[in-house]
Amino acid sequence: MRCSTIKFDVAMIHEERTETISNHDALEFINQTIADYNGEGEYGFSNRPMPKNLKKVITNTKSYLKNSSQPTSSLSKMRNAQYRELFQRWRLAKYGARLETIEQLSIVNVAPRTRSALEAIIEEAESRFTNEELDDILEIIIDVCVRGRILGRDEATMEEEAEAREQELQDALEKLELGKKAAQEAAKKKAQPGEVMDDIAWSQTEEDDGMEDVQEHPK
Question: Where is this region: Disordered (predicted)?
Answer without folding.
Answer: 183-219
